[in-house]
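[INFO] parsing input record for Glycosyltransferase 8 domain-containing protein 2
[DEBUG] input buffer:
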Amino acid sequence: MALLKKINQILLLLLILTVCAILYNKVHKAPSALRNEADDLESPKEMEEEIPVVICAAAGRMGATVAAISSIYSNTEANVLFYIVGLKNTIPHIRKWIENSKLKEIKFKTVEFNPMVLKGKIRQDASRPELLQPLNFVRFYLPLLIQKHEKVIYLDDDVIVQGDIQELYDTRLAPGHAAAFSDDCDLPSTHEMVRSVGMQNTYMGFLDYRKQAIRDLGISPSTCSFNPGVIVANMTEWKNQRLTKQLEKWMQRNVEENLYSSTLGGGVATSPMLIVFHGKHSTINPMWHIRHLGWSPDTRYSEHFLQEAKLLHWNGRYKPWDYPSVHTDLWENWFIPDPSGKFKLTRPDS
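[DEBUG] output buffer:
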């Protein structure tokens, strides 16, 4: 009997210890796991990847910058950081506009662009002087302006984004490629528009093939061009390949030899990129760059097609904040009036 009583006491003790162990695990280990999960969420390594978007803010066009930013911010949950590039005299205006509007919640940094880096590299061209504005060349200098990111999105100011910018950021670049662009022959739905307005979509429309320096490149004049108004760029490859230096070289050669001009297809900022990135760029999903909306005040895309588009680009003379222009309602959906009243839309009844 004494032995049986001893065994029962031992079993009871083991049972008590087991219950205590279970209770300890519930009380201590579960909260510990929650704490670790919270710590992971707060750890910089686990934070959502930042998507840097570079866009310019030029005098007289800041409403475009604001509309583009508004459209991006409203259509994504991604962690977007806007780099707003301007000249010294324009930055205070755009900063005030953002901070005094519903965009005050965005993450942004202003970057001053020094136009002196372009000295001696731009050939004066009276036919379209707006294409010679310094900020048109910001895209050439991305690694110098934006230094802490491996991958960057650059957008022209005359765009609106209807899709999630994360999708564009996830564009894959092939090994050795520093950038992805939209090919001008990539979307059959736009071909009729291109033909009807006389828009060029080959290298012949941008480069002067009468010049020996252009013929020496060995690029067929019928090669499909691309549009650098939307760029997904790899900063490491860009720097390693010294692409800014290459672009500057062709700018300087144009000053000396007039190899391309704004009287051709796309002005003076596109042509050097067509040369330097020929055969060395990846492609963007065509629906992420529906363009030519600013090429004619009369020709329009179908509403269904525009609703399916992820990004709309009013490249050309006819901008949606001016008159005449097309599909202005889509652009105005994202426009935020200037609190200072300096920027005003031009409309037929204004």
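[INFO] The CA atoms of residues 298 and 326 lie 7 Å apart.
[INFO] shutting down worker
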